[in-house]
Amino acid sequence: MRDEAIYRDRFVVSDPSIIYLDGNSLGRLPKRTAELVPQVLQQQWGSELIGSWNKHWLALSTRIGDKIGRIIGASAGTTIVCDSTSVNLYKLAKGFLHRDRSRQVILTDRSNFPTDQYILQGLALDASQDGELRRICLDDVPPEYAIDRIADALSDDVGLVSLSHVHYKSGMALDLARITRLVQDRGAAMLWDISHSVGAMPIDIEKSGAYGAVGCTYKYLNGGPGAPAFLYVRSDLQDVVCNPIQGWFGAARPFDFGEDYSPATGVQRFLVGTPPILSMAAIEPGVDLVLEAGISWLRSRSLGMTEYLIEQYDVRLLPRGYRLQTPRDPIYRGSHVSLQHEHAWPITQALIHEHMVIPDFRQPDTIRFGITPLYTTYDELDRAVDALVNVLEQRQHLHYPRERQGVT
Ligand SMILES: Cc1ncc(COP(=O)(O)O)c(C=O)c1O
User: Fold this and answer.
1) pTM for this one?
2) Which domains can be identified in the chain, with CATH numbers?
3) 117 pocket-lining for ligand 1 (C-beta < 6 Å)
4) 27 phi, psi to nearest 5 deg
5) Over 90: is that where the pLDDT of 236 sits?
C-alpha cells in the first residue's frame, strides 16, 4: 500500500528511467493539458477567433482563480490568476503599504526568494523618505523561534511584512496563522508568498486573516513553464486597496475605452493587461488534479515521503557527509527535502548525468529534492538515495567542474 501513486498515470512520463525530483521548480505535464492546449489553439483561436474572448477567455482568470482559492482556503471572488508572482507581489505590497503613510518600513527575511527581496527593495526606495526594507534572518533560527524573531523586529513604523510560507531553499514552513495574527495585531499588513506550499500542503489563508498572498502555478500546481501566477486579497480590502498598476483589465469597464481609470470592484481590480490565454488555459487541468486528489491526501502522502527520505538520510547519507537542511518536525516542513554538501554542485551534475536523477541546486551548497505527491514514487526516492551514495563512493562528482553553469 505504501506506493499509492494513483495519479501518476495522469501525467506525461515519457521516460520512466528519469527520476524527476524537481516538481517544486517545474511540475510535470498533465496528460489533460497536453490534450487541451491543441484544442484551445485549433478550436478557440483557430476557428472561433475573437469570439473566444466572450465565449471562453474572459472568464479564465476568475474561474481558475476560484479553483486555486479552494486549494488555499479562500472563498470565491478572492483569488485571481494574472501576471507573474513578482508583479503580483509588487501590486499587493505597494497597495497595502499605501493604506497608512506613517508606516513605510517593510519587513522581510534576508534569505527570502530573491525576487521578493528585489521587489521590496525597490518599493522601499520608491517610498517617501521613511521607506526602509528591514531584513531579519530566518534561515539560521530553529523554526519554532522564527516568530520571536519577527516579533522582535516589529516596530510601530512597520507597515508591511512579506514572507514566504515555505522557504525555497531549506523547505522550512513558517506558522502562517500565528505569524499573521502577530503581525496584524501589531498594525502591519501581512503578505504571503505561498509559491512553495500551494498544492502541497493545507493553507487556510482566509481564516488566517492575512491581507494577501501571491504564488506560482508552475510548481505543485503543474501549470507549465512561465504560467501566470495568482493573487489573493481579503474580501473586505478589495475595494479599499488600490492596484498601483492601473491597466485596462483592472478597470471597471475596460471595453468602454474611457479616458480616465476607474477601478473594477472586487479582486478583478488587481488585473493589469490582456492575459496570456494559452498559458493560462494550460493551468486548469493541473489545478483540477490537485482538487481531485484533495489537499489532505496530498499532504499526508507528501509528509510520508519527506519523512522516508529523512530516515534514509539518517542511515545512508549523514555518514557520507551530507547535511539535512530541512526541519525534522513535520509541522515545519514543506514538500521538499534539502541536503547540503560542500560539493553540492558537482554532485548534482553527477546525479543528473550518471544516474538520471533530477533534483536542483541552490547556491552555495544546497541540493533540493522536490516531492510532488501526485506523481513522485517511493521507488524514485530509493533510487535517488542510491545515487547520492554511489556518486560519492565512486567519486563521480570529481568528473564535473566545481563551478556552477546554467540552470538546474
Ligand atoms: C518563492 C518564490 N517566489 C517567487 C518566484 C518567482 O516567481 P515569478 O518568476 O513567477 O515572478 C519563485 C520562483 O521560483 C519562488 O520560488
Assistant:
1) 0.97
2) 8-29+294-399 (3.90.1150.10), 59-291 (3.40.640.10)
3) no
4) -65, 160
5) yes
